[in-house]
Amino acid sequence: MTTDAGRLTKAAPLTVVKPKQSLGSRLAGRVGGGILRLFLVLVGLFWLVPTLGLLLSSLRKPEDMSANGWWNVLSEPSQLTVDSYQKLLENSDITGSLVNTVLITVPATVLVVVIGSLAGYAFAWMEFPGRDWWFLGVVSLLVVPVQVALIPIAELFGKLGLFGTIFGVILFHVGFGLPFAVFLLRNFFAEIPRELLEAARLDGAGELRLFVRVVMPLGGPAIASLGIFQFLWVWNDMLVALVFSNSGSQPITVALQTQVRQFGNNIDVLAPGAFISMVIPMAVFFAFQRQFVSGVMAGAVK
Q1: Within 10 Å of residue 51's Cβ, how many Cβ atoms?
Q2: Lowest-confidence region among 1-15, 70-84, 137-151, 246-260
Q3: What sign does the dihedral 173-174-178-184 (CA atoms) show?
């Protein structure tokens, strides 16, 4: 005689009922990824069309460019030549302006990154009177448009003897690049774990050593992103350079604009000059794109 307590019962297997999908949903799920990838590839190729057109135009003779469009090179590759680049190297205005662009962009980028990093660390982890109010004052400078400060700063530079010099252009870019740099790096440095900094201080690290050995390596992605932003902004700028530079300190953007205004048919110099002016910042961006993406995504996933 068996009792209920001695009986062995088997639990019924659990079954998961999947919701029934329509035919359209199943087809969209299968082909959606492929269509999306194809769309992104087409968008990328479409974005590169102007760059490709400028490159091929810079490798054609002026008479060929005036006769038909750049796409005719695809059917007549014999039109390609490097004569325009040879003529570009013989143009002292373009080559000199390209050197001026490097002399302006590199210091303006380095100074913003270095000063912004130091200030960002100070606002994030150092205690001093009025720290939060000073930071709010720096952030408030972000809303000041560049156009508003052109005339007052031009008058100030004229009195100081900086107007028309490369140093004056650098100083303007540094002044207007620092508020964003301090804001970006301060918020990034503030996310560093306090325990890590306290452990370094217990090991005897001072503020400078702590900044160089701990904060800078951890803030590498954000610093690289800031450097790319600043480099692209300064390299492609024409408004500030047009106001504060002269014929001896003008960058490539102003030199090309001058060539268009004075020699409208000088396309054999303008095309290669414009391509060089565009391809250098593109090369910088693609060379540091991994750091740029890491800096942009920093803090998005915890």
Answers
A1: 13
A2: 1-15
A3: positive
At 191, list the tokens: 């996310």
CA–CA distance, 125 with 119 (Å, rounded to integer): 10
Instruction: State residue 292's pLDDT score.
Output: 60
Separation CA 148–CA 175 (nearest Å): 14
- At residue 302, the pLDDT reads 42
Question: DSSP characters for 134-175?
Answer: HHHHHHHGGGS-HHHHHHHHHHHHHHHT-TBSHHHHHHHHHH
Q: Which of 115, 95, 96, 118 is nearest to 107 (CA)?
A: 115
Q: Residue 166: name the closest of 104, 111, 112, 110 by CA.
A: 104
Three-state DSSP at 245 gives strand
pLDDT (tens digit per residue) in 154-173: 899 989 988 889 999 999 99
pTM reported for the whole predicted model: 0.76
Residue 229: enclosing H or E segment and its boundaries?
helix 220-235
Residues in the chain: 302
CA distance 104 to 167: 8
3-state secondary structure 118-145: HHHHHHHHCCCCCHHHHHHHHHHHHHCC
Residues 6+ apart with CB under 8 A from 25: none
CA 236 to chain centre: 11
Query: Which residues contact residue 152 at a Cβ distance below 8 angstroms, ignoring those fewer than 6 apart?
Result: none
Q: Nearest Cα to 183, choosing from 94, 270, 119?
A: 119
Contacts 24+ apart (CB under 8 A), 151-155: 154/243, 154/244
Structure tokens at 159: 């009195």
